[in-house]
Amino acid sequence: MAAAALLRGAAPGCGGPAWSWRLRAAPRRRLAHSGCCQGADSASGATWACFLLGERALVRVRGPDSAPFLLGLLTNELPLPGPAAGEASTSARAGYAHFLNVQGRTLYDVILYGLPERSGEQPTFLLECDSSVVDALQRHLLLHKIRRKVTVEPCPELRVWAVLPRAPGEAGGAVPPRKTAECADILTPDPRTACMGWRLLSQDEGSALVPGGRLGDLQDYHRHRYQQGVPEGVHDLPPGVALPLESNLAFMNGISFTKGCYIGQELTARTHHMGVIRKRLFPVQFSGAVPGGGIAPGAAVLTESGQAAGKYRAGLGDVGLALLRSEKIKGPLHIRTSESGLVALTASVPDWWPTATK
């Protein structure tokens, strides 16, 4: 087998197939800032930025009942493994979903990886979640396990990476990255939107991940994510507070309105069929000086006349997310800081959202 096989076909869009590779374990190596991957050109710069997501962790769910067990808890269908384009072997696939509470509010946002079944192995899924809620997610799963034949356990041996083109704005149309023989266990497009690039699960602390790649600054990843309006983790999606449709779960391919029942489905389905979602998470950018301590989560966002437009959710520097009323986003907006100052901000509609929402 060639050391680097190019993923065939165009870059996946929203809802497209998630091709991936599953490789044998490689010796652990550390990733240097100067060049993380085979083929990196120190003169012209790397093609890919590889971000180690230390605040993301994995939980493994395996067993003969793992699929029906998860279907009863998640907002989406499961990403069942299948053959990649031009490949005879079965590959892992990724999907996006939320766990909800009985009131229909988000508890945990997860990226799911359906792993290929090998001879003698049980069906296995990996759940990527915020590392601060790994224990809470395991308790949530065990609470609903009852008599299901499933095993729930952490998966600390794999690390989560994000892979983006060095120019992140090109992620939606970039040629897919290639694997190397010393690379990761799983490489798959981010299932939320093509502009978020690829997800990589690796046993390595930083061996050759993809040819032409370098270790990226984690703040650059989060800035790109906020600019694209993609929430991730408990700061952007506070457990028991965030509503899935207001959090754009449908835009991020994270919900099925035709699957069977799951916890929290009633309110979510009713909101969808009513067809009225008055508030959404929008990406925002501050145009004024931001206080040294940042903007407090939950700070009121006001219109020019002082009317309430929504609330600030989370961010990094001059970019972030705010839950805003859709009819208020086109006018001037501001936040009143604790020092009695005003910070102006602008809300935008991401290019990758459905046209009907713009």
UniProtKB/TrEMBL annotation:
Q: Which domain of life is it from?
A: Eukaryota
- Matching Pfam families: Beta-barrel_CAF17_C (PF25455)
Gene Ontology CC annotations of this record: mitochondrial matrix
**Which InterPro entries does UniProt cross-reference here?**
CAF17_C, TrmE/GcvT-like, YgfZ/GCV_T_CS, YgfZ/GcvT
Q: What is this protein called?
A: Iron-sulfur cluster assembly factor IBA57, mitochondrial
Where in the cell?
Mitochondrion
Question: Can you tell me which family this protein belongs to?
Answer: Belongs to the GcvT family. CAF17/IBA57 subfamily.
* Keywords, ordered alphabetically: Heme biosynthesis, Mitochondrion, Transit peptide
Q: Please list the residue ranges annotated as the CAF17 C-terminal domain.
A: 278-354
Function, in words: Mitochondrial protein involved in the maturation of mitochondrial [4Fe-4S]-proteins in the late stage of the iron-sulfur cluster assembly pathway. Operates in cooperation with ISCA2 in the maturation of [4Fe-4S] proteins.
Entry's Gene Ontology BP terms: heme biosynthetic process; iron-sulfur cluster assembly
